[in-house]
Amino acid sequence: MSREEREQQIKEAAKKVFLEKGFRNTVMDDIMQETKLSRGGLYHHYKSTSEILYDIMDEGNRMREKAVKSTIELRQGLSFNEIVTETIVDKILSENDFIPIYAMFLQEIKQDKNLNNLYEKLKEKSTKTILELFNCTDNSENIVSSLDLIINFINTMILGCEILQVRDNFRNNKDILKKMILVVLNNKEE
Amino acid sequence: MSREEREQQIKEAAKKVFLEKGFRNTVMDDIMQETKLSRGGLYHHYKSTSEILYDIMDEGNRMREKAVKSTIELRQGLSFNEIVTETIVDKILSENDFIPIYAMFLQEIKQDKNLNNLYEKLKEKSTKTILELFNCTDNSENIVSSLDLIINFINTMILGCEILQVRDNFRNNKDILKKMILVVLNNKEE
């Protein structure tokens, strides 16, 4: 296996264990057991469960980035704010392997300094990515000023979808959700 | 002590233990120890930790009801939707003893059938209360149709405030939050 394949294997195993036991209750030995790797084999790639979690989140972010790029390309006719709104709603309502882990991660950051740092790092990275994706337009300054509120709102809604299982209700009211997000974007323009 | 005083004492002790150990890890023995009551003394009032939790939530709801009533009285000059918006934003941003317990409770309902039933019961009860509080106006039908979305949104935002610690950020953007909620209310009117 290449380095990349091996790390992919470790991440998949870790996702499974995190979801079963919770991140907080998982130790490196659990990942060793799940991957059937030797101690040296595992530690060669990752020193801690936090490192693995970070890589999983980072992979999730890169997947999201690709999705955003394709939304931008598909929606050429829409206004800048409409495209941004579309990508935000997509993110809030999206359902994939990463979401339950991400929601679990968000629930842990308050108790765990290490994870909180990880969260800040990811937030910084996605802020940078969002700015890069959209910096071609005149409106980018509004985005900067409302980005913190928007990211907090997105993460809050993702938590609600997962914890309260209200994704279907939000999905059925997608148009209202879009209008709510446009309020944030338009408000910052004033 | 009167029955009411005793139950208040039990609820206060339980709140403390729930916050320390988490609801899921608390057993009746922990409450016995904290209250210094005998087994018979405690079980005379409550048969399970779920029963205590329900009473704590119910008390929180009644406090909220009072707050809503005073908001309605203080804001006589505002339109119906503006008053509703005001009470919703107040609820989302409110900070008191019940909120951390309520957020903890919301995080558990997915895993615990018993708590999920409790949640549905509380949701039904507050729906009824909200309708009673507002049924004097012409707009009450709009409220009914959007109530499920609104309650899901409120609970989602409460979770965000507690878990992500973004209450201050939301509070600083209170006007935007109000406009977002007006979108829901106005949308259902169309």
UniProtKB/TrEMBL annotation, chains A, B:
One Pfam family it belongs to: TetR_N
PANTHER family: HTH-TYPE TRANSCRIPTIONAL REGULATOR YJDC (PTHR47506:SF1), TRANSCRIPTIONAL REGULATORY PROTEIN (PTHR47506)
GO MF: DNA binding
Name the UniProt record assigns to this protein: TetR/AcrR family transcriptional regulator
Top-rank taxon, per record: Bacteria
Domain HTH tetR-type residue range list: 4-64
Keywords, sorted A to Z: DNA-binding, Transcription, Transcription regulation
Residues in the DNA-binding region annotation: 27-46
PROSITE patterns per UniProt: HTH_TETR_2
Transcription is among the record's keywords: yes
